[in-house]
## 1
Amino acid sequence: VTLCVILAVIMQALDTTIANVALPYMQGSVSASADQINWVLTSYIVAAAIMTPPSGFLANRFGRKRVLMAAVVGFVVASVLCGVAQSLVQIVAFRLLQGFFGAALVPLGQSVLLDAYTAEERGSAMALFGVSVMVGPVLGPVIGGWLTDHYSWRWVFYINVPLGVLAFAGLSFFLTE
């Protein structure tokens, strides 16, 4: 459960910075100005900020496991849609969707880990969680730059597919409601 939660959190945290280095390539691909392409980053952050508070309500209403798994699936689908987007409007819309689903991953992941460990072990669990939250934004520009240079800017979004599949499979198998 811990590994699956950490994968989901890293996937979400990675996407806060991974697209930064690919912006000039996206800009040329969709013929956007510098001001317009910044909406790719802004839309994700705004959607995540708006949807973080309701994630607890949704988890109480529909179940933490269901909401967490739906968030992983939605995040991965939105990531693929970002990768196949052909216009600025599409990328911004799909990044909004990505932020919408990604917002629940961090708070619900943290609550899953808090419930999975005893009071004595929670410090270690939160240390692992903290590392996963910190690793994503640090590795994002490095991985994003490498993927953009060696493949295409679209791969900064496709990288979420294997992480999301592993996280979803593990959560569906190991996490109980």
Note: The CA atoms of residues 46 and 104 lie 14 Å apart.
## 2
Amino acid sequence: MSLSGLRKLNVFATILFAAQVVVLLIVAKPASLPVTGQFLTGPPGGGDYGSTDLFSLRIDLLVALFLLLAAIDHLLVATFGRRWYEQNISEGRNPARWYEYSISASVMIVLIAMLSGVSDAVALLAIFGVNASMILLGLAMERANAGREEVDWAPFVYGCIAGAVPWIAIVIQFILSGSNADGVPGFVYGIFVTLFLLFNCFALNMWLTYRGRGRWQESLFAEKVYIWLSITAKTALAWQVYAGALAGS
């Protein structure tokens, strides 16, 4: 793929994400999930805790948010930031990708956690933070290996460790919810499996890039894969959430 072809793909992604934002906000019914807080009501270790409802987050707006962030990112690299973007791609990196993912993918994982039953504000903040850290270690991986002949895998390994934490937390929540007769809705399990596999494909794409396997030796090809993975992951989550929680009756 040429740089002009890459620009066309970014324009396509911009239009696709923006169109989904508009359609989703038109067809989705408003739905909210609670954010709660837990606090001590006695001395530590006494087992006395209280909880309170802090506020609610609109699921439909969270979905629209990560789609909108993606649309803005692709629009900027296809227009105002095109020269900067293409220069970075030619050198095997893309800071814009990681900045966008650090917010959009973290919103996505928080949404999945909330759908699985995680509502504590501190837990949700921690999940957002550790996922954002994992994403930014992708940026650190690209910067650490710029111009190097021997790959430094440390940022990749640290990122994989950090990236596992939110998924482990969600699995624990699934197990806890399994004791409840109602449990977690079936569509949430579908979201978990789909997005878990897709998130890991991003790591696989990076691994293949730095291993120099096949077409992954070309920075343009690796970037193309990142874009298609982003389109697939965000679209899959948006419309799985719509079908399970936002579709009108």
Note: Residues 123 and 208 are 33 Å apart (CA to CA).
## 3
Amino acid sequence: EWADKYLEPLANSDLVRPCIQTHTRVDAVARDTSQIDDETPRSDTPFRILLTDAEGQQRADTADIVIDATGTWEKANPLGRGGAAAIGETPDLENSLPDETIFDRRIPDLSKTKLKERSRVLVVGRGFSAATNIMQLKELHDRDPSIRCVWLTRGKPNDSGPMRVIVNDPLPYREELARAANTVARHADWLDWKPGVEVSAIHFENDHFRMVLSDGEELIVDHVLANTGFRGDYEMLDALKVHRCYGSGGPMAWAASIADSSADCLEQTSAGPDALRTTESGFFIIGSKSYGTDPRFLFSTGLQQIRDMFKIIAQRDSLNLYATMQPNTSVG
């Protein structure tokens, strides 16, 4: 629905369609230092964008304003202790595995997989992605009681289980998922829940994973679901001087604006235009990437960020981006 009703109509609108360059990767963003001199401040110098197209050809372009909305979905947090990679968690690990072996950092459709009898699955993470995978495994176990699971969660457990339950949650399915996953963790005989335990090392040998845990235990499992979250890719921004939060990794002004806000993502709101400013004039980070490793981002907040950002770009505090759009270019 998001693609059909919003993204595709927007991409095909007259204002946007001529501007889109598909299959193009941004490799680096920097200031065009050839135009910096004693009389030209850095903030008045255009950005230099290094790009690679679908044929692998590189080129450079310039821009006065850069909006980084690249998100976090392509860069997963490592599996290991303390947020760093586990021993053996190399970049090519996932690509080197047999086709029948699952090592997934998202939420695969397990109903379409064919787990062998007596398959042993490791789930790592204490968020709703991990809970979703646990409930998928419960459905598979109901059909094949030989399936076994180990669930690792960081930190101290809640009284009710690994998932925090929001009382009178305005999202009833979220509350239902949290309670169901907690019930499985505490009572299912086919699942071994290990709170406060992390992965120290991972080795794939003899068609199995040998996992070394932080408590010294070794596990042999067939499949791994690593739901440790995601973070933004900042390598392409190394040449810029962007002040980032030491905690979340997001831009400092935005991180400070949400530091004391509710832990419930539904209560997140944009803190206004000033919260979107970075230490590079004309450069903005919006969307999930602005949250860094903080998982509370919602699309509704991102849409408000867009409104606030264009107040800065247009230098109009009263600008209502959607109210001032022409009817033939509006979407949704």
Note: Confidence is low (pLDDT under 50) at residues 328-332.
## 4
Amino acid sequence: SLGRAVDPDHWSAEFGRLTKSAKVKPNPGKWNEWLTTKLDEAEAVIEYLRDNGDLAHLTHNELKHYIIHGRYQPRSFTEYLDDLVGQFRAAGKDGQVRIYSSVKRFLVNYGDKPSGRYEFKEINYRLLRMMEEKFQPRKTGNFNGLAVYMRTIRAIWNRAIKEGVVDAALYPFNKYSIRKTRTHKSAIRTEDLLSINLLDLPIG
């Protein structure tokens, strides 16, 4: 976003420019010159990154940071999580989308920031312990629901470290152990399930 807006009637989507009849100050010509300058600046950054072999390794958000700030800014935990959700959605991995999106809600509900937006360094041992203490399992004493969230957060950390997004020295799971509850098996044997399926039960 460039922080400016015009009426849709004054915009040519075909050419990416304001129309000559646009009623703006300064005149449309000045706006279009400014747009061209911004576009040239962005293309110069992209060309620089391509020449240095860095472009292929950047995500959309990282490239955006580079264009806006003129330098690379490390992604936050939240931005990295958003990127993963986007990748899963594009790949049609709906299950992964649901699981990873639920982590964002978990951080809002049990973290210490109403926004739910965190830097990697903020997902530390103190925060993990605090969220564990605030978590209220549906069934008293069963913390397996909490374990699902914590394992997903750990998976995000592990992937980010492998991709060089964050320093392994900040990894909080060297100290924090994921709490889980041993439960009784509730599944029946396959042969019993097949027997039920083969039962001849007349209507009524």
Note: The first helix runs from residue 28 to 51.
